[in-house]
Amino acid sequence: KSKSQFADSMRAKAAAGSTTGASEFSKTKTISEQRKFLPVFRVRDDLMRCIADNQVVVITGETGSGKTTQLTQYLREEGYTKFGRIGCTQPRRVAAMSVAARVAEEVGCRLGDEVGYSIRFEDVTSEKTVIKYMTDGVLLRESLRDPDLDSYSCVVMDEAHERSLNTDVLFGVMREVLKRRSDLRLIVTSATLDSKKFQDFFGGAPIFAIPGRTFPVRLEYARSVPDDHVDAAVRKILQIHMTMPPGDILVFMTGQEDIEATCGIVAQRALKLEDCPPLLVLPMYSQLPADLQTKIFERADEGVRKCIVSTNIAETSLTVDGIVYVVDTGFCKLKVYNPKIGMDALQVTPVSQANANQRKGRAGRTQPGVCFRLYTERAFYDEMLVSNIPEIQRTNLSNVVLLLKSLGVDSLLDFAFMDPPPQDTILESLYQLWVLGAIDNLGALTPDGRKMVEFPLEPSLAKMVIVAEKLGCSDEVATVVSMLSVPQVFYRPKDREEESDAAREKFFVPESDHLTLLNVYKQWERHAHAASWCTEHFVHAKALRKAREVREQLLDIMRQQHIVLTACADGAWDVVRKAICSSYFVNAAKIKGIGEYVNMLTGIAANLHPSSSLFGLGYTPDYVVYNELVLTSKEYMMCVTAVDGEWLAELGPMFFELRAQGAEGGRSAKRMREARELESMKREAEFQKELDQARA
Ligand code: ADP
Ligand code: MG
Predict the structure, then answer these.
(1) Which tens digits make up the pLDDT trace of 335-389?
(2) Where does the Helicase C-terminal domain lie (predicted)?
């Protein structure tokens, strides 16, 4: 069973009295009184009757009406758990964890007993668990092992309006499961009213609307477009704080960096203001440590105004009581697939009108409120989309395609997507999988592909593990992959940059950032996983402990897949670089100048990042591969490894060939031939589809 730092900290708090924070309301009322006060409680019996009578029910209701926390408990009270678990999916990890903690408190059990959660690499459930919160990705992967989802009696697909990639795929999968299991109940919840689409998709399922209880929210637009949304937000926060009546503030920012900056500047300026009443500024984003996340639910001391600066997680997933003022920057970070560089990138994008209205609504939950939009009214009407583009239409689909293939969906063009992804994206994903050797020329899963799907990893990382077995370094590669799946390994405190940089450099392996990570892990092991060693070397102990957990889970999967654990001779890590090369040869780059490279297939510039060990030690090999390209002031390669030209030709023969002066990429005759083959695959699929339609 995986250990979880979040679950541990929650249990410690539970022992001390309360897991989740206490608002003014919650301090004066018992938990069961609070539950009865929620809008959903008043319609509980009607709702349960509706669910008993219908296999699928779509539920809409304002955020905060109790959908996420109450439905699962009602279903349990009605006895559905006699036939299986109640599962509730969330598009966000943080929401799954936080809500499970709250519900465990309401039920009065330890987190992980009757109520638990499961997110990638972290399963806090047990035999006893009857209410299970999880990310949509986790349920999707469970359907691989348990195609009829037999362990569940009810599934609540929460936050369906988010239209996350995995939720969208689950819709298609669930529709098939429901045909086979007439006893299964599906409840789809949405915070917005555009639920007709879900209703139609499930053959006219009833829509149950929870009557809301909202107060009017006054809107104020900016008169001009601000240059800098951090600065604009800081000014607005302080203006509200200095001039407006009591009430907490919720600010919607883009991401971690901007949130931290905003919190820092507000706190600083508030100190300098004369007669500034006390203000408690709290950040909220998914990578924030769990104990700090729960702070947003805690009530501030008497006379202190609370100001939460959050990503769009506070838009619908989490509800904080007591918000009277909303400050909306009008932006969020979205994962967008960039076909030019063939990968996903997080981009700061204007939100849609639907998001903006949802944000505004957060100000009117308990009393009339005000929403300040830091953009013009014109921008709202002319520049914002009416609603979001579903993730499935804007991201890379390799992962999903691989998963669906192993669920037996042969032709993706036929899968029941609520909004089908662009055909080009499907074909591009098929192509990427073919390049990785996961599917063959006819689009069928290869034996390697079958193994790859078992890993909850990007296909390229799964491939790395599989190749490593053949190269005799699966032990090392499992560590590299684990280290890649945890956030931030190195710690760089603000006032000790030089000292921490020097400590980091001591770990550098000249040829590779991946090997540098491996080196850190190996040394940590050698020092008995000591936390003091981590502090001394400016390494996040939490990150390493998490990497160790992930590694253990990967080793489990490897055992199940009969992948032998092999380790290379001490420090003989060239083969590890070769394994890395085998999964990232699409990101191969050739040297052009000092620290400057170009991607060999796209010709796009790719520079060594100053934090790279290659940069630090001034090592400039002819060829490198990298994990991803990040676009800031320049195109930077993140996580770089030096490779041999011959490896590229050997591992990526469809792209590279050996020339007298080394490997060459580009459109070789072979590459052209393969491209033609892919084209004919595509035609065949289209023809097959036409044929099927003609028959039907
Ligand atoms: P919905 O899903 O309809 O948006 P929820 O079930 O999430 O509504 O929220 C119902 C109530 O539970 C809200 O008043 C919210 O403030 C409270 N709540 C939810 N999670 C927590 C938590 N972690 N700590 C304290 N209160 C919470
Ligand atoms: Mg909810």
Answers:
(1) 776 555 555 667 788 999 999 999 999 999 889 999 999 999 999 999 999 988 8
(2) 236-408
Q: Which of 388, 400, 319 is nearest to 160 (CA)?
A: 388
Backbone angles phi, psi at 618, to 5 degrees: 65, 30
> Ligand 1: does its nearest atom lie under 6 Å from the Cβ of 20?
yes
Pocket test for ligand 1, best of 68, 162, 187 (most atoms within 8 A of CB): 68
Cα–Cα dist 251/235, whole Å: 12
Structure tokens at 250: 């919720």
407's CB contacts (< 8 A; 6+ apart) are: 143, 144, 147, 173
Pocket lining: 60 vs ligand 1, CB cutoff 6 Å = no
How far apart are the C-alpha atoms of 108 and 111, rounded to whole Å?
A: 9
679: tokens are: 């084209």
In ligand 1, which atom is closest to the CA atom of 69?
6
* Residues 6 or more apart whose Cβ sits within 8 Å of residue 408: none
What ipTM does this complex have? Answer: 0.98
Q: How many whole angstroms separate alpha carbon 684 and alpha carbon 690?
A: 10
Strand partners, 306: 280
CA dist 417 and 223 (Å) reads 42
Using the 8-state DSSP alphabet, how is residue 80 labeled?
G
CA of 369 to the centre of ligand 1 (A): 19
Q: Is the pTM of this model over 0.90?
A: no
3-class secondary structure, 300: coil
> What is the whole-number distance in angstroms between the Cα of residue 193 and the centre of ligand 1?
20
Is-contact 403 140, C-beta < 8 A? yes
Gyration radius of the chain over CA positions: 26
Between helix 93-107 and helix 67-77 the angle, nearest 10°, is 50
